[in-house]
Amino acid sequence: MFKFPKNFYWGAATSAYQVEGGIDNCDWAKVYPAGAACDHYNRYEEDFDIAKSLGHNAHRFSIEWSRIEPEEGRFNEKEIEHYKNVIMALKQRGVEPFVTIWHWPVPLWLRDKGGWENKKTIEYFFHYVDKIMLSLKSIQVKFWITLNEPEIYASNSYLKGVWPPQKKNFLSYIKVLRNLIKAHCEAYKIIKKINPGAQVGIAKNNIYFEGWLALFIDWWWNFYFLNQIRNFQDFIGLNYYFHNRIKGFKFNQNENRETSDMGWEIYPKGIYHVLKDLKKYNKPIYITENGLADAKDEKREKFIKEHLQWAHKAIQEGVDLRGYFYWSLLDNFEWDKGFWPRFGLVEIDYQTLERKIRPSALEYKKIIKTNGL
Ligand code: FCB
User: Long-range contacts of range 114-117, CB-CB < 8 Å, 24 or more positions apart?
Assistant: First the structure.
């Protein structure tokens, strides 16, 4: 029996654009519209009831910049109220909120100013964060995640040219990363100033690289951002999905024995390695995302169990891991891929928007209830 620490946070994650529906004032909506998505904007109470019934004691979600600041400097109090209600709905259920401030979409007005390529966006972000912190001060949210996966965003949007603004420009890519680093540090300072008890970090996508080149790639992909924000984080949020075996100079030489519906290799042991590698920062770690697309729900139970087993081994070897958020609570809009990948513990019927709990969600619940495997 693998027992997890007593106050461990167990839950699942979502992000606004992927589940809420009705977000049309941002760059993504113009390139990859998500329409009504899961209508989580209107059904969050029902969804939190489900999370609660599944034994979750924490939940990660994001607030949407384009809702809160639909035009430069004009904040929508009604939308802020909405997120207040969302947070209260979690708290009333005894579920600890982990709030992500920016999970990728950029408001249209900001897109037109150059988005994250523009240095001034650091300032815009600061004002957005400042407004949120002041507005939510009275309800005391403890856990804040400023940015979700800065490298994945920067590389898909500015190197590969797939995500908005669909650029392929190395200099832009570097500029965006530099601006995100500064934006995080400024946000960190303002959050701590307004809410000194807050715990602040980012959600970092780390990959388990193998091979002699791994040393260099690790330095850039896994550690550069974290090193730059070293003095401006209280915890590390880890998103783990990928393993990449480098042979010679060839990447992705994985054996791919088992894959998800998206063709992503399932490699649970990788979570152990990336966790161990983060130990050097001496910070608490939360696994802020880990999951797979599996429409038939054939592999999810094993996936969760094996990742947790390896995470547990890391804990035994001294890693200060304090929580696990499965991606995702609900099936949702998987960015440029659309709705077909099914990541949810809960299945969504996109015709009726009916929610259906998958069997693996109940297995995850059993682990949570016994606090072990
Ligand atoms: C991560 C994203 C998340 C989701 C999962 C599958 O990179 O943070 O929004 O799309 O991948």
Answer: 115/27, 115/165, 115/176, 116/154, 116/175, 116/176, 116/179, 116/180, 116/183, 117/158, 117/172, 117/175, 117/176, 117/179
